[in-house]
Each structure stands twice: as C-alpha cells, then as structure tokens.
Design a protein that fits this description.
With about 220 residues, the chain is mainly α. The N terminus is likely disordered.
C-alpha cells in the first residue's frame, strides 16, 4: 500500500506543477535538490526531486534519481514506473520494458503498469502484443475510459478507423468531461470524411473550455 501511495504522491506533484511557470518549476527543483543534498538517504525526497526533473524534461537527471532510489529499495513501484517512462522518452525501450515487467511482478494487474507496457509495445512496433494487452485492459477495466482511449489510439495508428471510433465514443460516454477524447474523435471523424460530426465534437470541446484558436487546424480540415 505504501508503494502505491508513493506513486500517487508523485503524480500529485506533477498535477500541482501544471499551474506553475517554468521559472517556478526551476525554483521548486532547486528546493528539492537542496533537500536531497541534506538528506541523501530519504527516498521520498529523491522521488519528489525526480518528478520535477521529469516535468522539466530532464530525463537523465530523473533516471539518476530513480537509480538511487532503486539501489536503496529495489521493489519501489514508483521508481520502477517512472524510470520506465524516462527510459521510454530516451528511446531505451529494452530498459523501459524491463522496469515495467519488474513493476508488474510486484503489483500484478496494475492498470498503469499494464498500460505503460502496452503503449511501449506499440512504440516498439510489437503491434500484436500491444493490441492483445489493450484488449486485456478493456476486459479487466470495462468502466475505465483511459483503456478504451488507449486502444482507440492504437487502432487509429493502424488504420482500423471504425473500431477506433467505437472506442473513442465509449471513452467519451464514460468520461464526458474529457475534451482530449472529443478532439481525438474529431480528428478521426475528419479522416473518415465525416466532417459535420467532427465539427460538432470540436464545437462541444470549445463549449467545455478549449480555446477555439487552438483547434483552428482541425476546423480548417473540416472545411477542406
């Protein structure tokens, strides 16, 4: 349970940072680094510093912190999960895969771990494995919008547009406030030539708070 709480705490740091400017995030990183220098054995402080490194896209620095955490606690779920993510961003797919698999041995069936590995398989062109994992996630978590949206993204990449449309629509039904799903479905509908429906999704996203200028490319594609 503590390991899962540490993952949640790291994610909360990232959510809080969304409201900060780049300079504020740099200041927060410096504060975290100073605390790590004072208490180098404290795992929670290292995880917090690593989360700021990640937010600033300092992947190598983040990985170094997760390495240090795992030297002290080889079964730390948060460090394994986020180190896998940093390895992925650095295109070190084999190392990322190893961390996701180690994590899933510690917390079998964990949604984030399975999703991370499925998306990694997609990036690594292991398409059959990726789709099998996505299907398994949907079966395991039939009420989770993220599972459907992730599978839809894979299907869209592979040109499976009709089933991708079903999955994006299911994700929107489960999580109607998520404008990312609406925008993704609009993009898909444009590709399918269903531009009137795509525009309706874009208009809905605007009503939900997305600035219309940020969607101008998609609106233009609706008129082409």
């Amino acid at each position: 349970m503590r390991r899962l709480l540490i993952v949640a705490a790291t994610m909360m740091t990232m959510v809080a940072a969304n409201a900060q400017s780049y300079e504020q995030m740099r200041d927060s990183l410096e504060e975290a680094a100073d605390m790590v220098r004072k208490f180098p054995e404290n795992i929670d402080l290292r995880l917090r510093k690593a989360s700021w490194n990640m937010l600033l896209q300092q992947w190598e620095y983040a990985k170094s912190e997760y390495d240090e955490v795992l030297k002290r606690d080889s079964a730390n779920v948060a460090a394994l999960y986020y180190r896998a993510y940093t390895q992925e961003r650095m295109h070190k797919y084999a190392f990322a895969r190893r961390d996701y698999e180690r994590m899933l041995k510690i917390v079998p069936g964990n949604f984030n771990g399975q999703l991370g590995l499925a998306l990694l398989n997609q990036k690594d062109m292991r398409y059959t494995e990726a789709m099998n994992m996505a299907n398994h996630l949907v079966e395991q978590y039939p009420d989770n919008a993220v599972a459907y949206a992730a599978r839809a993204g894979m299907e869209m990449e592979r040109g499976m547009l009709d089933v991708a449309l079903f999955d994006f629509s299911k994700a929107i039904t489960l999580e109607p406030a998520n404008t990312d799903y609406l925008i993704s479905r609009a993009d898909l509908l444009i590709r399918m030539g269903r531009k009137k429906e795509a525009r309706q999704d874009l208009d809905t996203a605007v009503r939900k708070g997305i600035p219309k200028p940020s969607l101008i490319d998609l609106y233009n594609r609706c008129r082409e």
